[in-house]
Design goal:
The chain has 258 residues and is an alpha+beta fold. Helices cover 27% and strands 24% of the residues. The protein has helices at residues 8-28, 38-52, 122-140, 148-161; strands at residues 56-57, 72-75, 78-80, 95-104, 107-116, 165-166, 172-174, 181-185, 202-205, 208-210, 216-218, 225-227, 233-235, 238-242, 247-249. The strands form 5 sheets. Strands 1, 2, 4 and 5 form a 4-stranded antiparallel β-sheet that branches. Strand 4 (95-104) and strand 5 (107-116) form a beta hairpin. The longest helix has 21 residues, at 8-28.
């Protein structure tokens, strides 16, 4: 699928979808508590997306096999695409990534955030912080004329300098009227390589960083991806617009300053 350059009307819709996706993450934070199931978090987000925002939760029934829930909840050693369940009860010391994608007026906003359940364990707090820094360092390089390899390189360097590893099987992606489109945005690479960025491109950066080795494993549900060594993983994600002068973070949350 070719890379799509968004026009002014499409960008306007992308801004709305991005803001709504960010609002879901702001809303759900207070509900992430010990004793709450990931299934309950999914129901809260689903009802908010559908009934309050008037949006469609993009993950629901997406793909093959169809994803059965409206958000992804990836706990501890789950790298991505964790399926919410009433059987998965959060406990003190857990970390969970909540990944939200909403569709509004035909356009997607895609974002994820890490949450601590109770008081964070120091080693997990560090992993989560470094992973967020990886995302921010990648975002800082987004501008017309930059290359995707520049983004991947700075993310990989920061993770590995802190003795973590980058998941290579999963990556960021172009986004717009289509959930996943070109380009693929790798979180490793060499400066000056890969596609050159142009004004009007919209895509996600969503580094997945492991505390241990980079290898992953797909579970039998055909969605949930875990670390092979069962060590913790973290991920943060934003949807971005390449502007004439740099970047606009379409899914920026209230606590962030870009």
């Amino acid at each position: 699928m070719p890379v799509t350059i968004k026009n002014a009307e499409e960008i306007k819709k992308m801004r709305v979808a991005g803001r709504l996706a960010a609002d879901v993450l702001d809303m759900i934070g207070e509900h992430v508590q010990p004793g709450v199931s990931t299934g309950e978090l999914d129901r809260i987000c689903h009802n908010y997306i559908v009934d309050v925002q008037g949006c469609i939760p993009a993950p629901l029934n997406y793909g093959n096999p169809p994803f059965p829930k409206s958000i992804c909840t990836s706990v501890n050693h789950v790298i991505c695409h964790g399926i919410p369940s009433d059987d998965k009860i959060l406990k003190k010391g857990d970390v969970v990534n909540i990944d939200v994608t909403v569709i509004k007026d035909g356009y997607h906003g895609d974002t994820s955030k890490m949450y601590f359940v109770g008081e964070p364990q120091p080693h997990l707090e560090r992993l989560v912080r470094i992973t967020q820094e990886c995302l921010y360092k990648g975002i800082e390089l987004v501008r017309p004329g930059a290359h995707l390899g520049d983004i991947g390189h700075v993310i990989q360097q920061h993770a590995e300098a802190n003795y973590y590893s980058i998941v290579r099987e999963y990556c960021g992606h172009g986004i717009g009227a289509v959930f996943h489109e070109d380009p693929q945005v790798l979180h490793y690479g060499r400066p000056g390589t890969g596609m050159e960025l142009k004004e009007g491109m919209t895509f996600t950066i969503e580094p997945m960083v492991n505390a241990g080795k980079p290898q992953s494993k797909l579970l039998g549900d055909q969605w949930t991806v875990v670390t092979r060594d069962r060590k913790a993983s973290a991920q943060w994600e934003h949807t971005l617009l390449v502007t004439a002068t740099g970047v606009d973070v379409l899914t920026r949350r209230e606590e962030e300053s870009f």
